[in-house]
Design goal:
With about 270 residues, the protein is an alpha/beta fold. It has helices spanning about 20-30, 45-60, 80-85, 85-90, 125-135, 165-175, and strands at about 1-5, 35-40, 65, 100, 105-110, 145-150, 180-185, 190-195, 205-210, 225-230, 235-240, 250-260, 260-265. It is built from six helices and 13 strands.
Amino acid sequence: MTRILHISDVHFGRDREELVSPLTDRINGLAPDLVALSGDLTQRARVTQFNRAARFLDGLRAPILVVPGNHDVPLHNFFWRFVAPYRNYRRLISRDLAPSYADADVMVEGMNTVRPRSWQRGKFRPGDMNRVCAAFAGAPRGMVRIVVAHHPLEHPVGLDKDLPLGASAAVDRLSGCGMDMILTGHLHTWQAQPFPIREGHRSPLQVHAGTGLSNRNRGEANDFNLITVTPDRIVVERYAVGDAGSAFEPISTHPFRRVENGWAPGA
């Protein structure tokens, strides 16, 4: 069994400072095997904001896998956005933009979906998918295969935002090479459900975290996911802050079971 704490969009620089310590304490108290942070550590990719994000990460006791989000490259500083967009991220957070993690139960592959020159809209690149699929091909039978990326492969109905370039092809490619679940953010909206079943393809899980700390929470509570993974069962437990408080508490539990063509709701 592996317990993964999935958090996203902490946005230091536009964060709720009063939540930083409660979030740190709650994560450390849960003692996950891995913290997966799916991008947007900062609001404007400034050194001061990356320093605050680094201090937050340093305060977590679990191993950490982090990928960049579109807010982690400069928006207004066009020189650095075009010449060295990840300069501050690499220096202060991690030189690895697509890290990996594995234990006896899971293989987790990070993907960098940021497009610095377009800034907002992401992209799933064929070369990155080839790398992830090659890693998954070497995983032992029964190991749960997980991708962490900033941009989701599908959006909730009614959301007025462009999907990443290559998203439709990536759903088929990644599910076809064994992906069981993808952890994403970007939308500041929570979701956990299987992808719609496509003929001839498996149905992995798509799990969005909302925003861990940002004050731009779009009508939803600040939250994170605690995901318990076994070979045939995944349980997503959502933790969120109540209207009048600053404590992250469990508010809903969503079990999924392995089925013939992927994953389905149910214990």
